[in-house]
Structure formats: structure tokens, C-alpha cells
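pasting for the record
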Amino acid sequence: MPEFLIRAANPDDAPALSALIQFTLRTTNATDYLSEVIENVCRHFTPEQIHQKLAEREIFIGFWDTEMAGTVSFAGNRVYALYVLPAYQGQGIGARLIEHIEKRAMDGGLEELWLSSSLTARGFYEKCGYQMQNFEDWGDGDMTLLMRKSLSAGEPLKTPAG
């Protein structure tokens, strides 16, 4: 059975993370966004931009055996940039990455997490227990959904896998 491992990203991972995110955006989000919008978002995930984000956030990588299969990042009470390669979507990798972030947040005393979901990922995040709060219109056809999840001690973590 394949092994799944999560580890912190480092600067040497930037080119591979950039490729993973851009490929996933161009493949998975193509049904919900115009190509111009996707290319604009991809500009935020160049290797240089990933290096900058490493200084601002905790970035984690999920490996399926030895292949980089997904990534997620976290800063303050915000979840950022959850991407899973299309070949690995639907196998619980995204849920395990979110669960990893939620546990870190709870260990840090946070009571809630916020994120901006693409239209494409809304159903996934709802299954994880996030609730839509508002639409975020970034202009030029780029729209996301502001979502929130309570991490209160009385509420069990809810992910699609569990």
C-alpha cells in the first residue's frame, strides 16, 4: 500500500511546488474559470513567489510514496493554497492536508480558520466543515468564496475522510 507523508516545504522545493500548483490550476480549475483568470493566478505561484511565501507562511507538502502529490499553506488563522495534483484528487490527500493544518491551528490555540475557496473547491471545503461567509470578487472574472470553520474543542474535526 502506498505511504502518505506530510513534511514542511523548504526553498529547494519552490520549483516543484510552482509546477504542481500551476498544473493543477490549469487542469482542475479550467471548468470554472476563464484561462485569463487562471493565468493571472498562476503568476502568484512562480518559484520566486513560492520563495517569498515560504518567508510568510508555513507551507506543507503531501507525498504519495515519493511523488509530491499536494500542498497547503497556513499563516495566522488562514489556510492558503491547497492544491492536489489531478491524478491524486479524490484519494483523501486534500483532506489529510487540511486535517494537518487544523491540528496545527488547534495546537496553537486557534478557535477558527478562514480560507478563500475557488468555485471548484467549494464542495470539498463544505465536506470538511467550512461554511461560506461571503463572495470575494477580485475583478476580471476572478471570484472566490470566503469560508470559515470553527475549531472549538466541542466540535470534532470534520473531513471527507472522517
